[in-house]
């Protein structure tokens, strides 16, 4: 709302107002073509009479700063020459909204065609029409009950997990939930992270003032002996589908890791199950959470992968003792997810749309993968590479038979306008090489074809 | 999605499936009346033939566990007797969604009638129809540009602040933004908090592993001498409308505090301007951010007060040097607010609805306050109390002429089913007494009348 504080003692209120407006127009705070408030509104805002506003407007019109359009009101003239502003915000008006992106063979962004906009829009509308009271009621720290219950049903039917809604904490993204975990488990603990693995995790722990240590994986994932050697208290892992290797930790190794955690009271496992919905084959290994009997596993998942990365809803399941600790010590926090989206997502799940969406997406991804693989096998690259996948949901590893370094491969493709990530980008180990990530969730087929052609020429 | 892992080597797949389903029905994982997947879907999920599913379903029907409804499908029977479950999540099914609340004279929740549901719903629908690509595009850590630009326009016209969109960070609530500030400014700093003030702040800093110190206010708010004595590096204050005292820090004191901050490079002020939109009188003191010339002020505000506390969108404005520091070090974080709500709010502001909403609410609150004050002045309490307010937006302080302690007053009212908070609840100082918070934003008038009657009898 446009308003000015006018010094009534000075007496010339309309002059004051005229100067303030003129200044703001010159400085660009009031933009060309911008509509000014009606005289009445403006007078009320500034606690002056409408005649004062009228006088100021008249003067500005006569000087060409603003123009009056009949029956519409007053507008800043299009022809005003702006003074050089001392503030930076005008310069930045053209900050780009959409960043022009090169096709990225490793980028697993959701395809717009696949987000269920019409259903989501309908449920959102219905929620706003029918749940107004609930939508504005204070929320629990852990999120609205309806959503936590829906998640508990989903985990039960989809993952065979028996979880009470009271163990579930909904939050604005997994990164936020990590910061809560740090608060629950303690800042003075050592967190073990997988190598290779998401490099971001290390930065997040670091930004939260917490020490972490990288622990190397073997072909079954993390082992209890390397964990034991690391002296870590907490293991942050993704056993069900490791990114980017695609490793699914086998059952024996799971029991091994669980036994590591059970040995000490304050040892915990953070089980990140971020894309379990999209496993291609249907032979899921039970989650660590399910196998655990000592209350040592925090299970995490997100709707960023299964719905859209820009819908910021994730959740974690705390074992009973930690759920209590959380309630005792952190209930003062506000929930970080809008009630509007929590209730919408709850209905989306409970009415079966989430399951339908997952089924459709799974089918879509299976077809996508087949198309990508058949493109590969009919290309000249066929004999110069191999595909490594462990039931990966949304990507596979393309291993190139080449002497070129990963850096060289990436640079050659980048010069041709194509981005790709290597497995080595996710590790500090020098032994990993020649493995590239092909994410087929939303792959640009033309770019992929082009990349195969270029690669076949240089390898 | 309902699915089971069946051991194909055992041979009796339909028997396996039958047992798994029966078990889940008995344990209550599959609820009475719940619809089972169609034979085809279920077969695909479990990687078995439909005849296998058919056999399992038939057996369960014959035993009464499920029933077939013509043209609709299979449902779990209503009459199944559940086994006592070993898991807790069934017991909790009846966790209450809406907590029955006593009327609270100090609670400043938004009135449902005042949230612009129909406009919000319309803009949300429009956003989903027209901005599908943008909605699913990766977001910057600091939030989508359109919203930051809208906020910058709002701050310019409403607060006279010249702020570039690139200085603005949008986040899921101020509490989350505090945790970012701690990461930007450092965990090893001492944070000064106001006494009286929001008790929650101390808990938030504490939970983030950061030291804070309470600094007593005088009648102008925080002073630079007490700040200096505290040895704090950072002052977290609400100078424009302090809660709960209602103090607006006068201009001289503002300069004093700014000069305290300018003395050392790494001294900062966090200026929390949480309800500036609703000031009753129109003579706003400029924000510390506006007066500051040394880049020492972080300005914060939220839409929790101006829209609804369950819409989790807040923002902060960083001085240029900190904005750069943020971009250099923390751009790896994901934005914590859904793009759907960010774009909706951006349009809501840019199309003028936010200003209209604020104007309507301000008028509503002015009337509310008048109604509450006239009720008070016509009651028997009239001469037993006084009203203290400093242009408070949404509450005032009711000072009682009583010998009763704050605790006694609260207990007497609580026994009659009415909650109230005292100023002393927000302070560790023993000198504050007899001052109670009356929040008229959504006051239960009957409860207020009743409270006045009870108070007039005991005082």
Question: Main traits of this protein?
Answer:
alpha/beta, 459 residues, homodimer, 17 helices, 41% helix, globular, four-stranded antiparallel β-sheet, seven-stranded mixed β-sheet
Concise structural overview:
By secondary structure, chain A is α/β, with parallel strands linked by helices. Chain A contains 17 helices and 13 strands. In chain A, the strands form 3 sheets. A 7-stranded mixed sheet of chain A has the order 3-9-8-7-6-4-5, sandwiched between helices. In chain A, strands 10-11-13-12 form a 4-stranded antiparallel sheet, with no helix packed on it. A two-stranded antiparallel sheet of chain A has the order 1-2.
Give your account of this protein's structure.
Two copies of one chain form a homodimer. By secondary structure, chain A is α/β, with parallel strands linked by helices. Chain A has 17 helices and 13 strands. Chain A has helices spanning 13-27, 39-46, 50-62, 117-130, 132-136, 145-159, 174-185, 199-207, 224-230, 251-262, 288-291, 303-306, 320-330, 339-350, 353-377, 406-415, 445-458, and strands spanning 66-69, 73-76, 168-171, 190-195, 211-216, 234-237, 268-272, 297-302, 314-317, 385-388, 395-400, 421-422, 435-439. In chain A, the strands form three sheets. Chain A has a seven-stranded mixed sheet, sandwiched between helices. A four-stranded antiparallel sheet of chain A has the order 10-11-13-12, with no helix packed on it. In chain A, helix 2 (39-46) crosses helix 3. The longest helix of chain A has 25 residues, at 353-377. Chain A is globular, with a radius of gyration of 29 Å. The first copy, chain A, starts with 12 loop residues before the first helix and ends with a helix. In chain A, 46% of the residues are buried. The model of chain A is unreliable at 82-94 (pLDDT under 50). Chains A and B meet through helix 2, helix 4, helix 5, helix 6 and helix 7 of A and helix 2, helix 4, helix 5, helix 6 and helix 7 of B.
């Amino acid at each position: 709302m446009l308003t000015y504080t006018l010094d009534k003692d000075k007496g010339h209120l309309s002059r004051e107002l005229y100067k303030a407006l003129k200044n703001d127009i010159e400085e660009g705070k009031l933009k060309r073509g911008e509509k000014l408030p009606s005289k009445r509104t403006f007078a009320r805002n500034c606690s002056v009479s409408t005649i004062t506003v009228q006088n100021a407007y008249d003067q500005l019109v006569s000087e060409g700063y603003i123009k009056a359009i009949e029956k519409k009101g007053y507008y800043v003239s299009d022809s005003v020459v702006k003074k050089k502003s001392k503030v930076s915000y005008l310069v930045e008006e053209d900050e780009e909204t959409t960043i022009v992106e090169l096709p990225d063979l490793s980028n697993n962004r959701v395809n717009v065609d696949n987000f269920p906009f019409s259903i989501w829009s309908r449920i959102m509308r219905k929620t706003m029409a029918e749940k107004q009271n609930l939508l504005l009621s204070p929320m629990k720290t852990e999120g609205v009950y309806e959503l936590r219950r829906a998640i508990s049903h989903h985990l039960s039917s989809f993952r065979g997990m028996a979880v009470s809604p009271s163990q579930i904490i909904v939050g604005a993204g997994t990164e936020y939930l990590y910061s809560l975990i740090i608060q629950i488990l303690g800042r003075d603990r050592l967190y073990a992270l997988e190598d290779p693995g998401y490099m971001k995790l290390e930065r997040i722990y670091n930004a939260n003032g917490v020490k972490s240590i990288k622990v190397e994986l073997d072909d079954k994932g993390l082992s209890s002996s390397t964990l034991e050697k690391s002296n870590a208290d907490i293991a942050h892992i993704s056993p069900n589908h490791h990114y980017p290797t695609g490793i699914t930790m086998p059952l024996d190794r799971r029991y091994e890791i669980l036994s590591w955690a059970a040995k000490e009271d304050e040892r915990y496992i953070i089980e990140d199950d971020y894309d379990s919905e999209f496993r291609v084959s249907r032979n899921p290994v039970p989650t660590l959470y399910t196998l655990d009997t000592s209350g040592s596993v925090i299970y995490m998942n997100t709707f960023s992968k299964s719905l859209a990365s820009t819908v910021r809803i994730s959740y974690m399941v705390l074992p009973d003792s930690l759920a209590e600790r959380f309630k005792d010590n952190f209930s003062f926090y506000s929930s970080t997810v809008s009630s509007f989206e929590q209730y919408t997502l709850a209905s989306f799940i409970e009415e079966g749309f989430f399951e339908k969406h997952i089924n459709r997406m799974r089918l879509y991804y299976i077809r996508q993968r087949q198309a990508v693989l058949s493109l590969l096998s009919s290309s000249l690259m066929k004999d110069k590479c191999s595909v490594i996948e462990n039931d990966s949901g949304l990507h596979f590893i393309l291993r190139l038979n080449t002497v070129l370094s990963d850096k060289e491969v990436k640079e050659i493709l980048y010069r041709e306008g194509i981005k790709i990530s290597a497995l080595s980008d996710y590790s500090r180990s020098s032994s990993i090489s020649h493995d590239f990530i092909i994410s087929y969730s939303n792959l640009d087929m033309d770019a992929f074809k082009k990349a195969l052609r270029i690669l076949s020429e240089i390898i």
